[in-house]
Design brief:
By secondary structure, the protein is α/β, with parallel strands linked by helices. Helices cover 39% and strands 11% of the residues. Strands 1-3-2-4-6-5 form a six-stranded mixed beta sheet, with helices on both faces. A hairpin with a 2-residue loop joins β5 and β6. α2 runs antiparallel to α6. The longest helix has 18 residues. Bound molecules: uracil (URA) (2 copies).
Length: 237
């Protein structure tokens, strides 16, 4: 079961630095869901576990096309003890070049969204469904997403976030195992093994359709309320 009470009071009432309320706690500790059978790693061991997983990802050759065209793998970045993870689709050209997710134009917009929520990029964890850039930035194939799925699960099991925000339909459909359209995925809180999941538009979609930013802000407000964090009055850009 998802945890409820502890660690979630807003900074203003708890008197704690806000940073603390962004750190993770076991999403489903105490549940008998086999997904969580392994005990949580101590927080100070999670970065090393993620590093070891990243080395494994770098050796992966399961998908012939991305493996042939990738510069490097792009496992993920951020706080290994984050309460909140952002899940994107796949690395683009900038990410393939730098080895870090969401560092191009879409990443700049994601950073502004994170900041508008009163957080910093280094407070959260950011990863993608695919750890390699698909040639020409095409949509990941079903086989590629299935090949990469165990890496994502392992990342989630290491970090044990309480919340995942899916960026776009590809991430949401894969995580939630659904074919539902964006319109039905947004605006509600989904469950992934006790982790609360909120879906919003992909920042690359927002760059092409700026009017949808208003709806993404609604999604972020839903997320912040669920996290017990203060909801800023004004949308950032
Ligand atoms: N788009 C994504 O889905 N992920 C990235 O890392 C960059 C762009
Ligand atoms: N459709 C998608 O697939 N993703 C979005 O972010 C918006 C619409």
């Amino acid at each position: 079961m998802a945890s409820t009470g502890p660690k979630q009071s807003p900074a203003s009432s708890s008197g704690q630095p806000q940073q603390l309320s962004l750190l993770g706690s076991p999403a489903a500790a105490g549940s008998d869901d086999p997904f969580w059978q392994e005990p949580p790693l101590p927080p100070e061991q999670r970065q090393q576990a993620l590093d070891e997983l990243a080395a494994e990802i770098a050796r992966c050759t399961r998908c012939p096309e991305p493996v042939a065209t990738r510069t490097q793998t792009v496992p993920g970045v951020g706080n290994p003890n984050a309460r909140l993870c952002f899940l994107g689709e796949a690395p683009g050209a900038d990410e393939d070049r730098l080895g870090e997710p969401f560092v191009g134009r879409a990443g700049q917009l994601l950073n502004r969204i994170i900041q508008a929520c009163g957080m910093r990029r280094e407070d959260v964890y950011i990863f993608n469904v695919l750890k390699c850039r698909p040639p020409g930035n095409r949509t990941p194939t079903e086989v590629e997403a299935a090949n990469c799925w165990p890496f994502l699960l392992r990342q989630i099991q290491i970090i044990r976030p309480e919340f995942i925000c899916c960026l776009g339909a590809v991430a949401a459909r894969r995580l939630l195992n659904t074919k539902a359209p964006m319109g039905r995925l947004r605006g509600q809180v989904h469950d992934f093994h006790g982790i609360k999941v909120v879906v919003t538009y992909h920042p690359a979609y927002l760059l092409r359709n700026p009017s949808a930013k208003r709806q993404t802000w609604e999604d972020m407000k839903l997320l912040l309320r669920e996290m017990g964090l203060p909801v800023p009055q004004q949308e950032g850009n």
